Structures are given as structure tokens and as C-alpha cells.
Amino acid sequence: MVIHYLLAAPPAVTDSTWQSLVIESDLPVLIEFLAPWCGPCRMIHPVIDKLAQQYAGKLKVYKVNTDESPSIATQYGIRSIPTVMVFKNGEKKETVIGAVPESTLTTCLEKFL
């Protein structure tokens, strides 16, 4: 018998919450830029959700729907999704583009924790 655990998906960030949730965060922040219609985005969702659980208390994880918040995507030059960015102290520190393995994201995150 297989038991599936439902992980709470990271909350969405919008234009109105970007400053308070990301820029002013006291913890490093991982942002996934995505769109609901994006196949590779759906592939990386479980990895992002797992990282959110794994690093709870050390890292904040949010998602930005590029269809609903295009100004944030434009501000950070998002041209391809999924794109994952790590922010620390309000500054963009790292960008990973595409549906990458969990190990790639873990290596990226460890530098900022």
C-alpha cells in the first residue's frame, strides 16, 4: 500500500505582497516563477514543495504566477519558466532556470543558509 502525504503548497506572492514577503524577509527566500499551463513547472512543483518542508524555519518559499504578476517577472528579467531565484537580505543572489533536479536546488540553497 502506498501512502501519499499532501504537502501544503508554498503561498503565492503578488505585486502587493512582494516587498513585505520577499524584500523585507529576515530569512533567505526561494521564489519559483511559474504559470499553471507550464509542463516543466508542474514537474518541479513537488521538488519545491519538498524543499519548503525540509528547510522550514530556515528559508521562506513562495511562488509567483507570471500570468497574474507579470510586473515582478519583468522586473527580474524572467524570460523562461520555471525560474527559481534565491533572495537574501532583499537582494537576488542566485537564479536557476528550468526543471532541474532537487540536488541542483539544494546545492544552490545551502550557500545562503
Automatic annotation (TrEMBL):
Q: Which domain of life, per UniProt?
A: Eukaryota
Q: Which GO terms describe its molecular function?
A: enzyme activator activity; protein-disulfide reductase activity
What does UniProt give as GO cellular component? cytoplasm
Q: Does the keyword Lipoprotein apply?
A: no
**Thioredoxin domain: residues covered:** 3-113
Q: List the disulfide bonds.
A: 38-41
Task: Please provide the record's keywords in A-Z order.
Answer: Disulfide bond, Electron transport, Redox-active center, Transit peptide, Transport
The record's similarity note reads: Belongs to the thioredoxin family.
Question: What is the protein's given name?
Answer: Thioredoxin
Species: Salvia splendens
Lineage, please? Eukaryota, Viridiplantae, Streptophyta, Embryophyta, Tracheophyta
